[in-house]
Amino acid sequence: MTFERWLDESDRVLVAAGAGLSAAAGYDYSDTERFAELFPALHRKGLWARYQLIGLPLPPRLLWGYWSVHVDDIRFDPAPNPLYQRLRALVGERDNFVLTSNVDGLFARNGFGDVWSPQGDYGRYQCETPCTRETWESRPIVEAALATYDAANGEVSAVPSCPRCGGPVFLNVHKGPEYVPDHYAPDGRRLREWLGGDGRLLVVEIGAGFSTPAVIRWPVESLVRGVPGARLVRINRDNAEVPSDLDALAVRADVTEVLA
Description:
By secondary structure, this protein is α/β, with parallel strands linked by helices. It has helices at residues 2-9, 19-24, 32-38, 40-44, 60-74, 82-91, 106-109, 139-146, 185-195, 217-226, 255-259; strands spanning 12-17, 95-100, 115-116, 120-127, 136-137, 169-173, 201-206, 231-235, 248-251. Helix 5 (60-74) crosses helix 8. It is globular, with a radius of gyration of 19 Å.
């Protein structure tokens, strides 16, 4: 298989991942069964999947009822993920870096050391104004909200607020111009330096489609063009096409089958 040969011939591996990887790993925002199990009150209101809650205006108590349960499930589950573990084993001892649009922390939780997540991380939160460039760990506010969660109505009584100004807060993820990316900027600089290193580079892009192509898909194509000898393997069930000017391989398959 060309993918295996290219991996054997590489010295460095950049894993570039979109939402398709986490969906394949079991964190699917369109999973209706899991939604009904976790969010019975919202399900009774006519909602059926997590993706519907992205950007949906809700009263603060209901908003944090949803997000505290969601983040606890998708970000703070301590169990290793088998799919991410297989990917880590595939990369092996090669020098590697991760670029991902996913905000669930699954790479760091499954043995990857160098990760840049420019879209943020559910593990942090920020002021919605924002009144400061500072961000904070979100686990304490998630746990405090969950302690007051009422599954019958989907609400919490402990709505978090900004430690600085007392105003509304949200998770430190890119949902609009209020996003504060400062915490992740050093990782981005380290990735740029890493890309200038020695050895043949293989970019393995997984599950990055056209919902936000400017975050993963298009930048990956540009960097492969700019790094001499670089190759691209694009694993994507629905959008595996690769530009004809790149040394690239299109793998039109589910990543679970490829990594198996």
